[in-house]
Amino acid sequence: MPADPIAAVTICEEIHAWEAGGAESAEALSAWVGTRLQAHEEALAALLAVDRPRTPENTLRLYDAAIEQLSLAGSQAGVLNSVAADKAVRDQAQLEAQRVSMAGSALSLNRGVYDALAAMNIGGCSPPTKHYVDRTLLSYRLAGVDKDDATRAHLQSLHEKATKLSLEFSRNIQEGGKTITATADELAGLPADYLARHQPDIEGKVTISTDQPDMQPVMTFASDAGLRQRMFLAYNTRAYPQNKSILEQLLATRQEIADVLGFRSWADLATADQMMGSAANARVFLDKLDEASREGARRETEMIVEFARSRQPGLTEIDQSSRGYWYEQYRRSAFDFDSQSVRPYFPYAQVEAGILETAARLFKVEFRRSERRGWDPAVSVFEVYEEGKHVGRFYLDMHPREGKDKWFSAAPVVTGVRGRYLPEAALICNFPGGEPGDPGLMQYNDVVTFFHEFGHLMHAILGGRTEWAGLSGFATEGDFVEVPSQMLEEFFRDEKLLQFFGRHYQTGEVLPGEIIRKMKAASSFGRADGMRTQIYYTTLSLDLHDRDPKGIDLDGIVKELYTKFQPWKWIDGNRMYASFGHLTGYSSNYYTYAFDKVIALDFFAQFDPENLLDGEAGSRYRKAVLEQGGSKPGREMVRDFLGRDEDFSAFARWINEEFENELAGTVR
Predict the structure, then answer these.
(1) 489-515: buried (b, 16+ CB within 10 Å) or exposed (e) per residue?
(2) Left, alpha or beta for 222 (phi > 0: left; psi -120 to 50: alpha)?
(3) How many C-beta atoms lie closer than 10 Å to residue 15's C-beta?
C-alpha cells in the first residue's frame, strides 16, 4: 500500500461536468459521473485492502476520498438535473443522480467498510475527526449495517426505490408548470412593467405562467378575484395527478424502511440523528409555536377581515387565493405602504451587487467576477478571495428558463477539502429579469429570499475548508442547515444597508428612509399568521411520515390540517401536496425552518444594530458557526456562539413586533 493513502485514488482533474460537455451531452455527463464513481470504488477497494492496524490516516482518509468523489458526482448531477437546457441531459442527470444515490446506499450498508471504520483507534484524534467518525458510525447503524445479508439487500432495494420516486416527484414539479389566460381588464392592479411584459394576443388574451415572477404579482396585486383563484388552482395543481400516486408509494416505502429498522415511523427514523431527536420532540416544539402564534394570528385575521368588509360590503369570508391580496391592501391603508412603490428601487442587478457587498463586508472576503463559464450562458461566476488568497467559487443562475427548476435553492457544486479542492456552490433561483430590456424589478420579499439563499452559499464556501469532505460546507445536522440562511435574512431590516443598494433604477434616487420604515412596519404585520402557515406545512410533513400510510387520504389530511391551522376559506381542488417539493428533501423534517428561525433570531440579536456589518459579532459568528461546516454538532455551535442554548425570547419579540408599532391598525 502506498505511504500516502490518497495516492491510491484517481485524482479528479476535470472537476466540472459541464467542462467535460456534460451540460450539452447526455453521454458526456454519464461518462463524467462514471469516472467519479470509479474513483469512489477505487478508494473503497484501497480501504478494504489495508492489512495493518486501522488508523484515520490509512482508513478514514480513504473513506473520505470515496465520500469526496460521491459528493462531486451527486452534486453536479443534481445541479444539471435542475438547470440543463436540454431535456435529454436533464433526463440523464436524473438517472445519474439515481446511480449516485444507489452507490451511496450500497456504501451505507457495506459491513466491511463499517467494520474497518469501527476498528480505528481515534483516542488521540482532533475533536472534528472524532465527531466525524462517531457520526459516520451512527449513520451506518441507522442505515441497518448490522442486519443480516438478506435484510441489507432488501433495505438497499427499498432505498433505491425511494430515490427513484423522489426524483420523479421533483422532476414532475420542475416540468409541470402551467399557464392561464386572462383578459386585459382582469389584469387591473398589476404593475406597469408586468403589463408591458404580458401583451394580449390577437384574440385579446394574455398568457400567464405559474413561474414565480408571473404568479406572485397576480396573487398580491390583481384586483380580480376570479383571476387570483384561477392562478391559485393552476399553481396548486402542478404535477397533479401523477405526483399523488408517487407520493403515496414514497410514503409507503419510507415506512417499510422504518419497519425493517425497528422504528415506529419514518419520522422517528429521520429525526434520530438530528438536533430534534424524535418526532415526539418535534411535536412539543410545534405546540410551543402554536401557543406563541395563536393569539397574534387571531388578531391579524380579525383586522384583515374587518378591513376587507369595509372595502367590499357583503363579504363573508376570505379564501386562500385572496389572503395575499387583502394583506397588501391592508398594508397600503394601515401603514401607507404600497409594496409596488419599492420595486423600482430594487432592480435585480443592483440588488445582486448590494448583497454581494454586504456579505463581503460582513464576512471579510472579496468577490471577483470570473471569466470561467458555467453550465449556461445566463450563469454568472464569481471567485472568492480572502486577504488576496483564492478560497472558493460560486455560480449565480438567477432567472427562469424553460425546463429549469422553478424554485429558489442553494446547492453544493464542489465539496471543499483543505489541500485538495476549493469549495464551490451555486444559487438556482427564479427572480424577475434576465431578458433584454427587463430591469427585473423585485418585490421586497424577493430581496429577502436572495439574502436567505446567499446565507446558504456563504455557509458552503466558508465552511468548505475542513480537513474532511464529510464535514465540509452544509454537512451539519439537517435541522441546523437553515440557521445561516435565516440569520442573513434579518440584515434586510437595516435602513443604512438598504439605502446602500436601494436606488431608483431610472433616477438613481436613494430609497427614502420614510419608505423603509413604513416597509418594515408593514412587513412585520402578518408574522403570526405566516407562522401558522409554517405550522401547517410542518405538521403536514410530520403527520404524513408519522402514521400508517396504508389507505392514506392525502386530500383529506391536507384539508383537515389546513382548516385546523388556517382561518382562510379552503378552495376545493387544491392539491398542494403534489408540488410540495420539500416532502422529498426534508421528508418529515420541514420543522427545520421554524426551529432554525428561533435559533437564527437569537443569533441576530447578538449583533450591534448600529454596526451590523463591521462589529465583532460578524467575525465571531463566522468563526464559531460558518467556518465549522459540520465539524461540530449543531448544539455545540449554538452554545459556542451564544454561550448558552437558544431561547424563545428573540422569536417572541419578532413575532409580536407588529403590535408594538403605533401604525398597526390605523386604517385610512
Answers:
(1) bbbbbbeebbbbbbbebeeeeebeeeb
(2) beta
(3) 17
96 within a domain of the structure (yes/no): yes
Cα separation, 145 vs 129, whole angstroms = 21
Same domain, 214 and 138: no
Exposure of 617 in the CB half-sphere (CA atoms within 13 A): 16
- Pick left, alpha or beta for residue 189 (phi over 0 → left; psi -120 to 50 → alpha; otherwise beta): left
In a domain, 251, yes or no: no
Within-domain flag for 584: no
Tell which phi-psi region holds residue 433, choosing left (phi > 0), alpha (psi between -120 and 50) or beta.
Answer: left
List Cα–Cα distances, 115 to 9, 68, 112, 528, 581, in angstroms.
21, 20, 5, 50, 36
Spatial strand order of the sheet with 424-428 comes to 366-369, 380-386, 389-397, 424-428, 409-414
Contact, 397 vs 381, CB < 8 A?
no
List average pLDDT for each run of 10 residues in the chain, which is 668 residues long: 59 86 98 96 96 96 96 97 96 96 96 98 96 98 97 97 96 95 97 95 96 96 98 98 98 98 98 97 97 95 97 95 97 95 96 96 96 96 97 97 91 94 97 94 94 97 97 96 96 90 96 94 95 98 97 96 97 98 95 97 95 93 97 98 96 87 48
Phi-psi region of 271 (alpha: psi -120 to 50; beta: other; left: phi over 0): alpha
CATH number (domain holding residue 640): 1.10.1370.40
Identify whether residues 135 and 194 lie together within a single domain. Answer: no
Separation between Cα atoms, residue 366 and residue 360, nearest integer Å: 6
Let me know how many helices (H) and strands (E) the chain has, helices first: 25, 7
Cell of 257: 424502511
Please report whether residue 167 resides in a domain. Answer: no
Domain count, the chain: 3
Looking at the structure, tell me whether residues 382 and 492 fall in a common domain: yes
